[in-house]
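User: If only I could read backbone structure tokens as easily as an amino acid sequence. Those tokens are not coordinates but codes from a learned vocabulary of shapes. Could you go through the record with me and say what the backbone is doing? Here is the record:
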Amino acid sequence: MPTADAAAALTDFVDDLTHQYRQVNITARLITHAMRLAETYALRGYDAVQLAAVLTVHAARAAQGLSQLTLVSADQELNAAAVAEGVLVEDPNTH
């Protein structure tokens, strides 16, 4: 990727991070939730952390009356666990 393209991609990413994404802190509570999810659904560690973070944001959005999140993931185990937890899932491999 040419330097100018890389710089533009980085600028776009920083803009998205600032205005489009919600960052979730990795707290002891989140890790405890992730461990329960890993045990319940036999998820790999970071997949469980990712799902715990999604569920944290999902609950906060629901409390504010905002629309439901959609998890975009190609990982079948993570997707199945997310659906079981009430999260909408979009698998890019199905397109």
Remarks:
- DSSP finds four helices and two strands in the chain.
- The longest strand covers residues 70-72.
